Structure formats: C-alpha cells, structure tokens
Amino acid sequence: MKEMRGKEHIVKENDKLKRGEAIASELLKAIEESRSSVIVFSENHAHLRWCLNELVKIMECKKDLGHTVFPIFYHVDPSHVRKQEGSFGEAFAGYEENWKDKIPRWRTALTEAANLSGWHLIDG
C-alpha cells in the first residue's frame, strides 16, 4: 500500500503479502523514488524473503542514488543482523539449498544496513 503526501512516498507493508510472493513493481518503484527508508529489523525479518529482497533494493538505492537509510533494530541485536547470527542465521541455514544465488546479495545488504548508525530498541 502506498500513500502520497506531497513529494514524500510513504510505503507501508501490506500484511496480506504472502511469504515468497514476488515484490510488486510498484513497491520497487516507490523505493527508487523515495529519498529515504526506515528499515525495522525484527526477529522474523530474515525469515521473509521478500523483506530481504526489499532490503537489497533499498541498499542499491543508497549506493546508486544517495538514498538515506535509517535502521531500527527492534528486539534484535544489531550484531546478529550484521553477522547473520541468531534468528538471522537460522533463516539463512534454511535458504542454503534453494536460494544459493540470492544469499550473497542478502548477506551483503544485511551487513551494510547493520553497519549504519541506527536505533536499537529493546523495550517497548
């Protein structure tokens, strides 16, 4: 779902999007047209392949278009995201057989995003 407010693009995840479903071209376009993204990393983030694909797109836009990225680590340790440990490591262990071609890009995007200055929220 996308809302437009002036020149801002606000992209909200549609909770009806199912795991493994292709990312809509509209969402990728909205990411490209945005100037910044807020990424909320949670325990299940790496278990959703479409979240990882969106993250890759966001980090590509950061590199190529100067996109600003604000990571929020919600009840996850940033080092687990950076090193793909804990629930992130578990998710990647399940991807080894079927998603070998995408894993390097996902790992790079997670590491780069986790190395950015962000917020680590433990309570709330």
From TrEMBL:
It comes from the Eukaryota. GO terms for biological process: signal transduction. This is TMV resistance protein N. Pfam families: TIR. InterPro entries: TIR_dom, Toll_tir_struct_dom_sf. Residues 1-124 form the TIR domain. Keywords: NAD.
